[in-house]
Design goal:
This protein is an alpha/beta fold and 229 residues long. It contains 8 helices and 12 strands. A 5-stranded parallel beta sheet has the order 2-1-3-4-5, with helices on both faces. A 4-stranded antiparallel beta sheet has the order 6-7-8-9, with helices on one face. Strands 10-12-11 form a 3-stranded antiparallel beta sheet. The chain is elongated, with a radius of gyration of 19 Å.
Length: 229
């Protein structure tokens, strides 16, 4: 499920959005100022930002500008929140690279609809852009279900391929074992995450030069896995 970062200095709005987003199944992280927002984007690798313009210190427009200047964050959708009547902020925000905006006070239901629509659009574009991914000696044909390692085609099981696809299409993003279970096996955490560990071990044997010192699939002890981007 997608991770949403909500950035606002008003606690009631943070709690309102957290409640509604989590009810829809999203993972939610929050930040109360611009600096926290930048740090959260770096740490959490969110799939979308809901970003208020009026923030203490660094405002939302500056946060947007900074994120759009960093290549690995340029494709993260940003929905900006503006106070009523701040037309100039809407225009500037869109010029800086924001994808959408809503005026306070807003309808949580409408915001949810816009988030869903933006994520669908982003996922469709990612799938179109990521048909063939090349990372070092690894070549992954996402739609053709083929993997080449050092020029040789390598046979993966369907679950191994799904695991590799999730990781390689989001380089640098950390996935917990629970997230991978849900995304690939389609069920919630049931107390046994060894399934993920076993598949990672088998996948490393097939794509890594040295599985004990992986070049691609990194373990974050006590957290999960990520593809080194």
């Amino acid at each position: 499920m997608a991770t949403i970062l909500v950035v606002d200095d008003e606690e009631p709005i943070l709690e309102l959005l957290r409640f509604n987003l989590e009810k829809e199944g999203y993972q939610v992280c929050v930040a109360k100022n611009g600096q926290e927002a930048l740090e959260s984007v770096e740490k959490e690798q969110p799939d979308l930002l809901v970003l208020d313009v009026m923030l203490p210190g660094m405002d939302g427009l500056e946060v947007c500008r900074k994120l759009r200047s960093i290549s690995r964050f340029q494709q993260i959708p940003i929905i900006m929140l503006t106070a009523k009547g701040e037309e100039i902020d809407k225009v500037v925000g869109l010029e800086l690279g924001a994808d959408d905006y809503m005026t306070k006070p807003f309808s949580p239901r409408e915001l949810l609809a816009r988030i869903k629509a933006r994520l669908r659009r982003t996922n469709s574009q990612e799938e179109a852009d990521a048909r063939i991914i090349i990372r070092g000696e690894l070549r992954v044909d996402v739609t053709g279900f083929r993997v080449h390692v050092r020029g040789e085609e390598t046979e993966l099981t369907p679950k191994e391929f799904d695991l590799l696809r999730v990781l390689v299409t989001h380089p640098g993003k950390v996935y917990s074992r629970d997230e991978l279970l849900e995304r690939i096996w389609g069920y919630e955490y049931d107390g046994d995450t060894r399934t993920v560990d076993v598949h990672v071990r088998h996948l490393r044997l097939k794509v890594e030069r040295d599985p004990s010192n992986p070049e691609y699939i990194e373990t974050l002890r006590g957290i999960g896995y990520r593809f080194k981007g």
